Amino acid sequence: MSKFKQFHYHLNTRKLPKGSKDLTFILMADMHNHVYGPGNRLLLEAVEAQKPDAVLIAGDMLIAHSEESFCPALELVGKLREKKLPVFYGNGNHEYRMRLRPEVYGTMYQEYTKGLRDCGVILLENQSIPFEKNGLSMRIYGFELDWKYYEKRNHAPFGPEELTRVFGNPDPESYHILLAHNPVYFDDYAAWGADLTVSGHLHGGIIRIPGIGGVISPQARLFPKYDAGHFQKDGRDLVVSRGLGTHTINIRIFNPAELSVIHLHPEE
Question: What is the reported pTM?
């Protein structure tokens, strides 16, 4: 896989004052150590051309394997920071697994996250941080979904109270961006108060059938609802990346790797 495609998503919010300049966010997810050109030059040039206000990372930039290097992921985010871009990072299941299983991965997670922080990446492990731009008061959250929700035979209940337990209740006057790797629970993210949720995890459904969508999720569920693209519920938005890499199932059919560009406009 040597190419990726840019997907542009246009969102509106009443919380961005009328007459304000639009905001642009780059969304990256599921890169799994993939590289586009020497030093990821092709990807970095595409990001820089969009002149983004921030980069949102929704997890799985590396591969959780004791024999895998995390250097490609760390080098990429380091170069994004060299361009003075704010980078907000929420963990995916690969980062989370490394943190949960030190008996398998040793100090790999600690070394990786130290590298992130040393270059100025804002890593959000069930944490949030304020961010303001173009008159919009925002709060950005990184949500780590409990491991049981990634299991193939998972039937554990999930509800918006899970986010309330971690983050409390969101201020209705601010614009809330939730980095949540798994999009399956978007209805609950929206009910909690996330104005924009950004996710990945499903790799676009691996194989996409034109007019139908993605075929299978990592939990082996057919035709996942929130497979890729832009979705809305009760005035709240979800953008799901098809991912920039692959892992385990290294195929993509009618399903290009995705660099997501999110344009946030004042509501008409």
Answer: 0.96
How far, in Å, CA of 11 to CA of 24, rounded?
10
How confident is the model over 237-263, as pLDDT tens digits? 999 999 999 987 788 888 999 999 999
Ramachandran angles phi, psi of 34, nearest 5°: -70, 150
The 3-state secondary structure of the chain, one letter per residue: CCCCEEEEEEEEECCCCCCCCCEEEEEECCCCCCCCCHHHHHHHHHHHHCCCCEEEECCCCCCCCCCCCCHHHHHHHHHHHHCCCCEEEECCHHHHHHHHCHHHHCCHHHHHHHHHHHCCCEEECCEEEEEEECCEEEEEEEECCCHHHHCCCCCCCCCCHHHHHHHCCCCCCCEEEEEECCHHHHHHHHHHCCCEEEECCCHHHCEEECCCEECECCCCCECCCCCCEEEEECCEEEEECCCCCCCCCCCCECCCCEEEEEEEEECC
Q: Which residue has the tokens 């082996």?
A: 220
pLDDT in tens, 108-136: 999 999 999 999 999 999 999 999 999 99
58 contacts 69 by C-beta, under 8 angstroms? no
